[in-house]
Specification:
With 449 residues, the chain is α/β, with parallel strands linked by helices. Helices cover 35% and strands 18% of the residues. The chain has an 8-stranded mixed β-sheet with strand order 2-19-9-1-8-5-6-7, with helices on both faces. The protein has a 4-stranded antiparallel β-sheet with strand order 12-13-15-14. Strands 16-11-17 form a 3-stranded mixed β-sheet. A hairpin with a 6-residue loop joins β3 and β4. It binds zinc ion.
Length: 449
């Protein structure tokens, strides 16, 4: 029965999603206008290119998990690439086992669709899918990152790499560019091989390199650096060529959806929220090289995690919690909101935050208990970090670009979207509807095409 279903599905509608992590709508429109991205230009001319919105917090792991599940982070439980173990001061790197809502490949597999999933964040360890899967940037290495396991060797022979080495990129932009180029070539080789030789009805190919180059080279691009701005543009031209090859391997009859999960802008300042909490007397862990949250006692009333996630040290919930639930908890949240909203850029005096929201104002769903008590939402240009080791409030790093909530993009070939701004959690229902499948009940997203 399952074999019959697989064969039947493979001859029905097919949907290819290409994720270009962190590509802003504004950048794409500019590069299309300059003639740098002819494949994207052609797809946009036949279809609909729209500005789109991310998730809060604006983190790739959080946003792509919203895409594949169709729910907000309060439903799927991924609030960052590092999350907290509830009821403790310990952290973990997120992964497929922490996602609390079914991903689109699970829904489709149960309905007999065969899938090919390549490099989508939060897919390690690799879940068993009906089809093929290779993990995304948090997978330690190709070996062990695939379903089935033997797919790793097949991709390895094609020069497939999961990601660049970001530590090399911190040393040299030339190394970054070489690494980006090799990784993109391997992605195209792997994707064209699988899409053209395997049966599938839903495929997702993710490119992380766009997010990487934006983080490391936004200033060079923005300043029109004579050496590196042209090479930034060259990389986008290579991404356009890659999109063309991958789309051709899938065939003209496949539905094609391209999107990014967030926008990008230049970083004005990084802000260490832990330093602010410490200076105000909320965080009782002194700055030192080996400072850890496990050193917190009841003198700590609040602590934070990147980006802008603030947790109250609540009695009965955190092991050393001293803040009483109820009035004391609410008064503390009000006080932190009021204090943080006064935080101003030391150079311009401009406020750095758009808002600070209570968890229940931003999130809803079964994973609400894992959400931060407060979420600080920055104005574009202010990158919120949390580090117990640092003691400077305003800092900088080799990372010159940061994520934005707005200015992501969605693009569909040969169709128009429904009215309204696409949001990343519209992904799963849209993909399902393009396949002629009814989305499961209870999703936050809408079918946009
Ligand atoms: Zn990023």
């Amino acid at each position: 029965m399952l074999d019959f279903l697989r064969r039947r599905r493979a001859s029905g509608p097919r949907v290819l999603v290409i994720g270009l992590d962190g590509v802003p709508h504004s950048l794409l429109t500019e590069l299309i206008g300059r003639g740098v991205m002819p494949n994207l230009a052609e797809i946009a001319a036949s279809g609909d290119l729209r500005p789109a919105e991310s998730t809060q917090p604006t983190v790739s792991c959080t946003a792509w998990t919203s895409f594949v599940t169709g729910v907000n982070p309060g439903g799927h439980g991924v609030f960052g690439f590092i999350d907290r173990e509830p009821g403790s001061y310990r952290h973990y790197i997120t992964g497929s086992r922490y996602v609390r809502s079914p991903q689109v490949w699970r829904t489709l597999g149960e309905r007999g669709h065969r899938v090919i999933i390549m490099n989508v964040p939060v897919t390690s360890p690799p879940p068993e899918v009906n089809g093929l899967l290779v993990g995304g940037f948090l997978a330690p290495k190709l070996e062990g990152a695939t379903h089935p396991p033997e797919l790793a060797a097949r991709l390895g022979r094609l020069g497939y790499r999961i990601d660049i080495d970001p530590w090399q990129a911190r040393k040299s932009l030339d190394l970054l560019l070489q690494d980006l180029d090799a990784t993109l070539k391997g992605r195209v080789a792997g994707a064209t091989e699988l899409l053209s030789r395997e049966p599938w009805s839903y495929a997702m190919v993710h490119v992380m390199g766009t997010d990487r180059i934006n983080h490391f080279m936004w200033a060079e691009w923005d300043d029109g650096d004579p050496d590196y701005a042209p090479r930034f543009v060259d990389y986008y031209a290579a991404v356009d060529a890659a999109v063309g090859e991958i789309a051709r391997a899938a065939g003209d009859d496949a539905e094609l959806l391209l999107l990014s999960d967030h926008g990008f802008t230049r970083t004005v300042h990084e802000i260490n929220i832990d330093v602010w909490l410490r200076e105000r007397g909320y965080l009782g862990v002194p700055a030192s090289e080996d400072a850890k949250l496990t050193q917190a006692d009841a003198s700590t009333r609040a602590f934070s995690m990147t980006p802008g996630r603030i947790y109250v040290n609540l009695r009965g919930r955190e092991p050393q919690g001293g803040v009483e639930p109820g009035d004391e908890y609410e008064a503390l949240r009000d006080e932190i909101i009021a204090g943080l909203m006064e935080l101003a850029d030391p150079d311009s005096g401009e406020p750095v935050l758009e808002a600070v929201r209570r968890r229940e104002e931003v999130f809803h769903g079964d994973a609400l208990d894992r959400a931060p008590d407060l979420l600080a939402i920055p104005r574009d240009g202010y990158d919120l970090k949390s580090s117990l080791t640092g003691d400077e409030l305003f800092t900088s790093s080799p990372i010159t670009g940061m994520h934005t909530y707005g200015d992501a993009f969605w693009l569909v070939r040969g169709r128009q979207f429904q009215d309204g701004t696409p949001r990343v959690e519209d992904g799963a229902p849209t993909a399902l509807s393009l396949l002629g499948e009814e989305p499961p009940e209870g999703l936050d997203g809408r079918a946009m095409a």
